[in-house]
Amino acid sequence: MQVHAVFNRDGGTFRTMDITAFALKAKDIFEQHGHAFQSDIVAGKDIVKALETAAARDRDGVLMAGGGDGTISAAAALAWKTGVPLAVLPAGTMNLFARSLKIPLELNAALESLASGVITAADISTANDRAFVHQFSIGFQPRMIKLRNTLEYNSQWGKRLASMRAFARVMGRPPRFAVRLTVDGVPDERTVSAISVSNNPYGRGLMPIADRLDQGKLGLYIAERISLSSLTKLAATILMGSWRNNNDVDEILAREVGLHFPHLHHRKKATIDGELIPLERDVVIKVHAGALKVLVPAEPASG
């Protein structure tokens, strides 16, 4: 197996370590398992270009992406379009896609598990022309991330603290907006505070991640007209992992979801895999079953 890795040196974990030494360690581990390995270390601003170059150069190999969820999402979109298998190295804060793929979060353990891993098929989803592997979200989360980005932080824990501060500020003024939905062809109309659409439904663990990525379904989560008190309750149930028992959140499984925003403000944002993007008036979300090839541990590993 030929592996071409691209490491985002500005990723959360990589910023605190000797990434050059780590790249040599990765090469040693993969070569011990009989694979060819090369890597590029690039700045965050250059990551997409480096991924494109690596995928074009080694179409018969595996594209490894090391970084946070934004880096992994960009790599997954590229791997899907080119048909190149993707290996995910979790070097971010949350590492949501890696968790769903059962990849260990400790980097050396992740390298060992991937070097002895197998290539399998996973689902990937799109919101209009943008691919995502975790979640498309509007309402509460984009507002929180927009506020968090105005705060300074220099570490993973600093980012988490900034997220908590942004969450507290958004709680004071929960968003509300009208949306016309079409869920597998069935129309609906609601006034809501938040909508999230996940690439496969969330599992029942503490974190909102998919337990499996091969179900060929979207998870649609709708929070309607949340008040300050109900938002506080929702935050508590999310922290305790019991949000499925919260009556303020509807869960619907679907293969295609259409969203229309009749009163859209031109500056409104959405998020795809945690990254802010402009929100379009009409969004069609689809799941592409088994369309993404991924390198995963041969056996599930705890992380």
TrEMBL record:
Annotated ranges, domain DAGKc: 44-131
**UniProt KW Membrane keyword:** no
Q: Which UniProt keywords apply?
A: Kinase, Transferase
Q: Does the keyword Cell membrane apply?
A: no
Please cite one Gene Ontology biological process associated with this protein: methylglyoxal biosynthetic process
What is a GO molecular function of this protein? kinase activity
Gene Ontology cellular-component terms listed: cytosol
Q: Which domain of life is it from?
A: Bacteria
Q: InterPro entries of this UniProt entry?
A: ATP-NAD_kinase_N (IPR017438), Diacylglycerol_kinase_cat_dom (IPR001206), Methylgl_synth (IPR004363), NAD/diacylglycerol_kinase_sf (IPR016064), YegS/DAGK_C (IPR045540)
Record-given protein name: Diacylglycerol kinase
Q: What is the lineage of its organism?
A: Bacteria, Pseudomonadati, Pseudomonadota, Alphaproteobacteria, Hyphomicrobiales
